[in-house]
């Protein structure tokens, strides 16, 4: 198939919404990374996502809503959901909530689970598309499964050209790393670190919460260890670089590219995936990355780097 490329005009958004309504796949910009969207109520459409990405079918998808009100139709609400959604939506937070009885979100998108992952994205293009469609879209990151997440239209095209109906160009993603995932099925647990830090979540809820470690695969089936992988091998915590390594610096450890010369973790987060893409495209089979402090947003960066460096399975 030929992948159409849209801009963000009203006309283009209308065409993209039509493709979704007809069961097609559209890559859309969000404030975190580009998502590969399909009508979340349509099993056939959702199946195309798994196919285009080569994604293991046990890995459930996030349903993106135009608003929290839209989510009320599909999930059981709670006090914690209310607090977090008021503080952080629209924005880079995903909540795992119990599915309502008779919830019409595709079982395939939920990978058969009785829970649903919900996010209300802030990006104006994603908002416009969801409002136009009037229904949720299931959307994982718009990359072949296990590869680096896309933060520009060109990354999407590089990975999925000819496998999806369209991509909407909304410019580079502002945040550049995926949403923080919080499970509210029981006591709140952070399943995936992201743009929203543990401290922010704790201060909104008014109590301490736990963060799932890497071995806890039960509640987050998608947290596969090897993920976000570049083609090159990856060496972490490099204080110096070898001759044959393409290097990604941070702060004073310069490198061929530098995540943030001023050691600013927000800037480093926004640059992470696009710099890994860029280094991976250069000649050579090894990438080395400078140490990233493991606090605040550094926790999410190190989570992604550790997965990217894990042996590929
Ligand atoms: O920022 C983001 O979250 C991006 C943009 C496109 O919104 N999306 C994204 O989706 O990162 P994806 O598919 O790459 O990651 C979704 C994660 C997976 O680890 C999956 O296992 C988990 O969410 N997940 C989805 N539904 C779940 C559920 N019911 N219970 C537990 N984990 C779930
Ligand atoms: Mg992903």
What key attributes describe this structure?
313 residues, alpha/beta, 11-stranded mixed beta sheet, 4-stranded parallel beta sheet, 30% helix, 18% strand, globular, binds threonylcarbamoyladenylate, binds magnesium ion
Question: Could you characterize what this model shows?
Answer:
The protein is α/β, with parallel strands linked by helices. Helix content is 30%, strand content 18%. It is built from 9 helices and 16 strands. An 11-stranded mixed beta sheet has the order 1-8-2-3-7-4-6-5-9-10-11, with helices on both faces. Strand 9 and strand 10 form a beta hairpin. Helix 1 packs across helix 5. The radius of gyration is 19 Å and the shape is globular. The two termini are 29 Å apart. About 3% of the residues have low confidence. The structure holds threonylcarbamoyladenylate and magnesium ion. Magnesium ion binds next to loops.
């Amino acid at each position: 198939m030929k992948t159409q490329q849209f801009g963000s005009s009203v006309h283009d958004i209308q065409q993209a919404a039509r493709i979704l309504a007809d069961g097609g796949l559209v890559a859309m910009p969000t404030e975190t990374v580009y998502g590969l969207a399909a009508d979340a109520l349509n099993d056939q459409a959702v199946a195309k996502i798994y196919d285009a990405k080569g994604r293991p079918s046990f890995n459930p998808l996030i349903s993106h809503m135009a608003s929290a009100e839209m989510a009320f139709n599909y999930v059981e609400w709670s006090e914690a959901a209310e607090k977090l959604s008021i503080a952080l939506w629209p924005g880079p937070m995903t909540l795992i909530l119990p599915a309502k009885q008779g919830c019409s979100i595709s079982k395939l998108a939920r990978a058969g689970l009785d829970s649903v992952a919900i996010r209300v994205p802030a990006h104006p293009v994603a908002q416009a598309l969801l409002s136009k469609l009037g229904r949720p879209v299931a959307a994982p990151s718009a990359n072949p499964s296990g590869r680096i997440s896309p933060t520009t239209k060109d990354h999407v095209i590089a990975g999925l050209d000819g496998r999806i109906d369209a991509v909407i160009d909304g410019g580079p993603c502002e945040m550049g790393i995926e949403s923080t995932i919080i499970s509210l099925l029981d006591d709140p647990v952070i399943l995936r670190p992201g743009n929203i830090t543990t401290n922010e979540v704790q201060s909104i809820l008014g109590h301490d919460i736990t963060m799932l470690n890497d071995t806890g695969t039960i509640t987050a089936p998608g947290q596969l260890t090897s993920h976000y992988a570049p083609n090159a091998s990856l060496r972490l915590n490099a204080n110096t670089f070898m001759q044959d390594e393409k290097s990604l610096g941070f702060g004073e450890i310069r490198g061929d590219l530098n995540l943030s010369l001023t050691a600013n973790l927000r800037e480093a987060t926004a640059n992470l995936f696009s710099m890994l893409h860029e280094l991976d495209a250069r000649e050579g089979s090894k990438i080395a990355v400078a140490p990233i402090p493991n606090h605040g947003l550094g926790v999410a960066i190190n989570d992604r780097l550790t997965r990217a460096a894990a042996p590929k399975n």
